[in-house]
Amino acid sequence: MPAAEKIIRQAGRSTGRHRRQGECMGGKDNIFEVLQAQDGVGLVEKQVFTMPSYTTIGGKTIRDVRIGYETYGTLNARGDNAILIAHYFSGTSHAAGRYATTDTETGYWDAIIGPGKAIDTDRYFVVSADTLANVNAGDRNAVTTGPASIDPDTGKPYGMRFPIVTIRDFVNVQKALVDALGIRKLHAVAGPSMGSMQAIEWAVAFPDMVERVAAVIPAGLEADPYLVATLNIWMAPIMLDPDWNQGDYYGAQAPVKGLAATLKNIMLNGLHPGWANAACGRKPALAADDMLRDFGGRFLIETTLEQVGLMRADMLDANSLLYTAKACQLFSIAHQGTLQDAARGIKGKVLLMPAVSDLLMLPDYARKAAELLRACGKQVDYVELQGVGGHFDGLQAIGQAGSALRHFIDT
Amino acid sequence: MPAAEKIIRQAGRSTGRHRRQGECMGGKDNIFEVLQAQDGVGLVEKQVFTMPSYTTIGGKTIRDVRIGYETYGTLNARGDNAILIAHYFSGTSHAAGRYATTDTETGYWDAIIGPGKAIDTDRYFVVSADTLANVNAGDRNAVTTGPASIDPDTGKPYGMRFPIVTIRDFVNVQKALVDALGIRKLHAVAGPSMGSMQAIEWAVAFPDMVERVAAVIPAGLEADPYLVATLNIWMAPIMLDPDWNQGDYYGAQAPVKGLAATLKNIMLNGLHPGWANAACGRKPALAADDMLRDFGGRFLIETTLEQVGLMRADMLDANSLLYTAKACQLFSIAHQGTLQDAARGIKGKVLLMPAVSDLLMLPDYARKAAELLRACGKQVDYVELQGVGGHFDGLQAIGQAGSALRHFIDT
User: Fold this and answer.
1) Where in or outside the cell is it found (chains A, B) (predicted)?
2) When you count CB atoms within 10 A of the terminal residue's CB, does the N or C end of chain A come out lower?
3) Does B9 touch chain A (CB under 8 A)?
4) What interface predicted TM-score (ipTM) does this complex get?
């Protein structure tokens, strides 16, 4: 089950430097090596964009803002062949290529970004940016300013004193980056999941600049209340962990147990029974597990999610996860007025691409967004990703959408 | 939105004695009073069935077993007009009627159980039984033997030393009760959710006794690995709470925070975006909530689920919830051999009734079960509950299935 294996590998890795994997998959690394050996953008480098200060839409000023970004391809003289890629909840700006020839993993959308691929780096200048308060704050390949950063006013990590940041704030910082790079038009903004929120927000915030929006496994035009509640549930185990200590755990024991429980939850929400059946079935974790007599006996699906959760918990920052979840909860293009008001302002065309087996960003969210946008006179393409990989099909199974994406991007 | 209000009320109450409710719903009590004023089984009484000892399928013996039950209607002389009702995860044997004329709530399936109703108590003798390790261990209207019970060997509560119990164990104890009541044939066994597991298990365990199985919002023939993982995630917050203390919290501070987080999670899994939109939308909990500047600002959907979770946490037993979750994880009709082997042994006909908006027991589980049972030559009816109430439509919206149920039961 290569697809299933790659999903859990994706869940289990950060930005390519992590090699361990959950128990569900066997030794089929070579299958992926073959996939990954195809020509792509090659070696890439994380770059850093800095702003002396940025004021959030909530009116708080953050000093010394730094975010990481990567670029693939070349900007043309008119500055109008750029495509911006926005990442998902637990992702980084590593969207394509490798940092070193020894990396076994490429960026998450390598299947569609590269020379001759759907997002063709021979034609387009692709920019991929880290968000503020990026979850991977401890990862050397994610550069971000967030609760784990040092507050210049105190010399100590912000913790929960960091200002609330929103999807619009992510976009505003990206706008400064895009301007600094000399980009005058965005041929497209594209992203999966939380990246779709940023892509749509871009079209609302800077309608004259955005010609196309490709929203993959999208939330729609706002975080549905059910999604708001799901994000609340993701946040809960961290805040239950005594080691969280109201966010002041830097230099002490981090809330690894709570964070691991949160990550287990996120993974499950991102997956689907079809995947769980194929990858683990109802097998006990160990042949010796006495499921009828030992309460500690576990099914393989449980230990797999737990192990991947624990692995990732070592690399992520709990407070940053809370801030990113809050940003997603607050997402709505309707800053003032209605969704319709905001939608009417969009000038670019929109592609909505849900995954049919998605249990987190339900295909219904995309359908409703398409309906609303069309009712507002917008041009909308709607394409479904097939598969049983759930939400993660927007990452792992994106290759199937190459021609649909290419058509949307090139026309 | 009466349906939405009743769902959250159902989530927020125990067995009829609880009056408070979450914030989402307004003062529409009278709507339900009208519904509930229709004639039903009237006043009912909890009775207690005792067994000197019961040996689990895991081989452990539990002494002094007590479970509660209720009956509606009259057993005929041949003892063959009985219908057994098995309850859902957080339910009790209070399936119909009221304990007192002042009760504002009836039993959970009152819409379909009563004189002239789908499960017609003028014709059938209905028995509804509490499970072992019932989650409502602290509720005076649930009678159960489980981790909160006193271990006769030590004089102290079992805690996590209580033996693992399974759906088959629930059924075996019910079999002893049914025998004691003089029942010789079960005209039907019916139940929602975890009750559907018991109903199907009955048909596998005692095929000559069970003429019909009505499995509502069913898991299918086993707990899917995705469901196993979901149950793991339900268990996690309890075990993260330091007050849980490995299950030894009786007489001390109970793990209320962890249990509340668990219950919030269960509620959300049981609901659906359609409900969340109708009941709460994206409204902040308080007009004063400064969502862009105060990290403690909450959406109404969050505070509603949190409040209902906290309310119920006061009444439920955390260890019992863990044991009930474990029982569900272990559910498979394939005790030895395959699902097909077990399915072939079923003699009664089967009704599978998923809810179309169910995000917990996906309609796919029912479809696959129907397919497998039919391939084994079994007679299967398949009827979908319509609505946007999610899993809880199997409780709240069951009234719509009255004629389908009546047809299945009476023919």
Assistant:
1) Cytoplasm
2) C
3) no
4) 0.91
